[in-house]
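Input chain follows. Return structure tokens only.
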Amino acid sequence: MRVLHVVTLHSPSHAFGGPVRVALNLSRGLRERGHDARLLALGDGFEGPLPTEVEGVPARLFQARRLLPLGFSGITSPALLATAGRSVRQADVVHVHLARDLVTLPVALAALRAGKPLVLQTHGMVDPSDRLLAKVLDALAVRRLLRRASAVLYLTGHERKGLEAVAGPSTPVNTTRLVNGVPAQEPRPAPSSAPRLLYAARLQARKRPQDFVAAVPEILRHHPDARFVVAGPDEGELASVQALVGELGVAERVSCPGPLSGTEMLSELRAAHVYVLPSVDEPFPMSVLEALSVGTPVVVTRSNGLAHDIEEAGAGRVVADASGIAPAVRELLDPVVNERASVAARKLATEAFSMDAVLDTLLAVYDRCYAGTQA
């Protein structure tokens, strides 16, 4: 089966975050099972020509051009738009990681026009919104796509309800739950004696990197040799993080290395005693799944889509708000507790979020969608 995965942007800094990681994981898994999975996206930030392959997945990348000052919603490529019809016609299934932007929306519409099976996966990026741009795009394209797609994949019940609200009551949305999967990884080695705490996600307000930094002094009072890493591409919070680090007087203990490659991310996770993601309303973060896959215990907030699984498995700690981060980390720095949580984390990743289980579900969706267009 020829499957085209469409995402907004791929860059060396991984600025677009989880949707790209999901698309690549799925594409690699599909290729390992003998399917021809490919990636279509904008590219930006590369030195020299845009790559034609990303982590073993054939890719067609087009140089990103900014048309409007609207973050990811304002970038596109005239060349990508001009060839979208040809790209979707070459596929048996078009799998669009949909956002309200000028890349995924036009390609999804092209798939509808071409009569191709269209699978949408929104990663929590399409939800009810009062923003003017969202209302305009919903009226022009999003509702039509949700109502006419062969399948719409969702992560949580909250996301499904949001998608149905955006689509409106006139036509039911053909939804299927698909969790994010994580490839099997080698377990981390025994942690070093000096605690190492990691935050590795985009530096944006919703991710709450300052909450991680605010917990540093209390942790240092009990573990004065601890080291802290705040990694990820800057989306407006780096200056505030650095200012707070200076204000708290912990600059010698906190490093901000910037974006991490996939290999660097796994290396940092294996070196960490605990991974902390203080973000709120996070549907299904890939960074947490990757931490679990190597056996690094995690600390997340109650609104994280993985909170229930983590708490039930004992793979880390779930906190109500920022005040709970330092106590949770301190608990997990106990060697016995840390080892027990590490084993639970690996078990959870292997049993609940394996790529094999996710791919089985996804291929069943593809088969139904393809058969529907052939009837």
